[in-house]
Amino acid sequence: MNTLDWTAKWADYTPNKIALTSYDSGEQYSFSDLNTYANRLAEKFKRIGLQEGDRVAILAEHGLEYIVLFVACQRLGIILVPLNYRFPVNEIQKLILDCTPTLFIYSYNHFEKFEELNITSKHIFNIKDVRHFYLDDTINVEPRTYKIKESSPLFIFYTSGTTGRPKGVIYTNKMLFWNSLNTSMQLGITFRDSTINTLPPYHTSGWNVFLTPLLHKGAHIGMLEKFDPKKVLQLLEANKTTLFMALPTMLLMMQKDPSFKAISLKKLRYIISGGEKVPPELVSHWKTEKNIYIRPGYGLTEAGPSITSLHHKMAQLKPNSIGKPNFYLETKIVDKNGKVVKNNTIGELCIKGNIVTPGYWNNSVKTNNNIKRGWLFTGDFAYRDHEGYLYIKGRKNDMYISGGENIYPQEIETHLEALDGIRKAVVLSVKDEKWGECGIAFVTPTNKALTAKDVRALLKDRLVAYKHPKYIFFLDDIPLTSIGKVSRKKLLKYFNSVKI
């Protein structure tokens, strides 16, 4: 039996164990069901002529059908391309033109967008057609073992596409295996564990933070199409869930929900959080109120995403750290000349190992620029302290030079958020006639009487003057992307619309 066909192995070993549960429909699939359904779907795909290396683009929410599709495609060497259904039609069209899918699948929730798209794929299915195919017990499937190749691409994840050329990250079976091993090692995952996935399918976190590692371990995966803080809290409690992944924004919404205090969550071993900076006060709140450990970490679509993890017992001792590198990978921090820097010196974080992508789809220039001699240059500035703990200082592209000085927005954000009266802060840069570039800060105040003058006075003893943002804006909320990250594009649009 193929060592990468985890579903087939668990279907043989524990056929009746529940592998998947939809908390939207209440439907459940055992490992035997998942194996059978994937075989039927694979047979259907072979009959319509799909071949190894073909792309299947999907415009649909995450769910049981998507996971059956994943297993079927993996067995045939077909590449899944999850599309961001929150993108406007013209941006989705760019992705489709880039990946040229043989099969296009959509859900009725996005039928209007589907109608506007110029789909030229040979085959077009609705997601319910996919479900009909694999539930059709008249499809005869010959017993066979599928040869799953380590080097075969499994996904193309588009990490951007709203400006310029789309950037499709190739995600292989090798990456899948070693990421699962990294994740399992750091968290001690076993077949007894369970999770609830509320993350979207078009982002690597919706697959490779917990879903595929738990599938590898024969554990239980609960699926919920949309994040709702109250419902998630109730489901975590009712199902005695042991592992959960959430962005900091999601965790803040959960702890603010009225039901938070009444729910114990005693079975929840760890919460993994990342995607953006994890505030130390968030970590301490969950530990104090629920005795639950939040483990901050760092990941990329291009690698892992399980790259670093901060041990739960160090989360409050090393605030703002992303922890140490996980198993089976190497890291280094280099200067602009590629030379490794000393401890406590800022440089670009680089990663090497079997979790690194072979490159970008149809984009050899981007591949060669970012991957050199096996090392992925992440574009993230970081430093390592004397104990080996890593700290992210921000994106290389986010750093700006004002009056000849290098300035890192994340440093300013950390100081702003430490001030009384400020809940959240985001710092961006814009061109400035005098200094070349200057900083602009967007803050959400807890004290409505707070003024920009007050903020500058509070920063005076914390930051050298040239690091102070030139402009300060007060917002009720910081705009977010579809997966809960800060939307810098919306903030810049707001800035450009305001007369200074």
TrEMBL record:
Gene3D superfamilies assigned: 3.30.300.30, N-terminal domain of ligase-like (3.40.50.12780)
Tagged with keyword Ligase: yes
Domain AMP-binding enzyme C-terminal: start-end pairs: 411-485
Keywords: Ligase
PROSITE patterns for the chain: AMP_BINDING
Domain AMP-dependent synthetase/ligase: 9-361
InterPro entries per the UniProt record, alphabetical: AMP-bd_C, AMP-bd_C_sf, AMP-binding_CS, AMP-dep_synth/lig_dom, ANL_N_sf
Pfam families associated with the record: AMP-binding (PF00501), AMP-binding_C (PF13193)
Family recorded in the similarity comment: Belongs to the ATP-dependent AMP-binding enzyme family.
UniProt cross-references to PANTHER family, sorted A to Z: ACYL-COA SYNTHETASE, MEDIUM-CHAIN ACYL-COA LIGASE ACSF2, MITOCHONDRIAL
Protein name: Class I adenylate-forming enzyme family protein
Originating species: Winogradskyella poriferorum
